[in-house]
């Protein structure tokens, strides 16, 4: 059975919101339990979500795809008003919170992409190049894990 959220509707049922947002109703209930979205209850104890919840769910899903933890998502959603539809300024404030973190994630992903075929400093010594790039596991003295990916490399010229 297909439900349709009318563009005129001020509120949505859990089924309407789930269908429009492209998520399972269980995901909406989970987000609500986690304090990421809110609903009101009808006299029959059915959930009703304000229309702006659709934007919040889209934000949650996009944030999860970026690998953001639920605690961080909850924190920035806490900056948005509960009793009114968020404005562009509200969303700009939220996006500014993650700009530096996202820039760092992008830098690390580019570093991973560019260095994945080279030694990443894991200390495995299993590839013939490891004996040349990391003889006697020198990088192991710096700590556990993939050392070359864990530490930011200085930019040419010595500046970060």
UniProtKB/TrEMBL annotation:
Residue ranges constituting the HTH merR-type domain according to the UniProt record: 13-79
Keyword Iron belongs to the record: yes
Key words of the record: 2Fe-2S, DNA-binding, Iron, Iron-sulfur, Metal-binding, Transcription, Transcription regulation
Segments of this protein annotated with the region Disordered: 141-160
InterPro entries: DNA-bd_dom_put_sf, MerR-type_HTH_dom, MerR_fam, Redox-sen_tscrpt-act_SoxR, Tscrpt_reg_MerR_DNA-bd
Pfam families the UniProt entry points to: MerR, MerR-DNA-bind
Keyword DNA-binding: yes
Domain of life: Bacteria
Coiled-coil annotated spans: none
PANTHER family membership: REDOX-CYCLING DRUG-SENSING TRANSCRIPTIONAL ACTIVATOR SOXR (PTHR30204), REDOX-SENSITIVE TRANSCRIPTIONAL ACTIVATOR SOXR (PTHR30204:SF0)
Name assigned to this protein: Redox-sensitive transcriptional activator SoxR
Organism, scientific name: Streptomyces hazeniae
């Amino acid at each position: 059975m297909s439900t349709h959220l009318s563009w005129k509707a001020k509120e949505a049922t859990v089924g309407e919101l789930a269908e429009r947002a492209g998520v399972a109703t269980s995901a909406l209930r989970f987000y609500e339990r986690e304090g990421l979205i809110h609903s009101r209850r009808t006299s029959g104890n059915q959930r009703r979500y304000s229309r702006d919840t659709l934007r919040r769910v889209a934000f949650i899903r996009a944030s999860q795809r970026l690998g953001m933890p639920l605690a961080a998502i909850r924190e920035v959603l806490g900056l948005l008003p509960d009793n009114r539809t968020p404005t562009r300024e509200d969303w700009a404030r939220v996006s500014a919170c993650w700009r530096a973190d996202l820039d760092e994630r992008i830098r690390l992903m580019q570093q991973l992409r560019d260095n994945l075929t080279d030694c990443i400093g894991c200390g495995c010594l299993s590839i013939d190049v490891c004996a040349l790039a990391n003889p006697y596991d020198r990088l192991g003295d710096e700590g556990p894990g993939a050392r070359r990916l864990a530490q930011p490399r200085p930019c040419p010229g010595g500046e970060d």
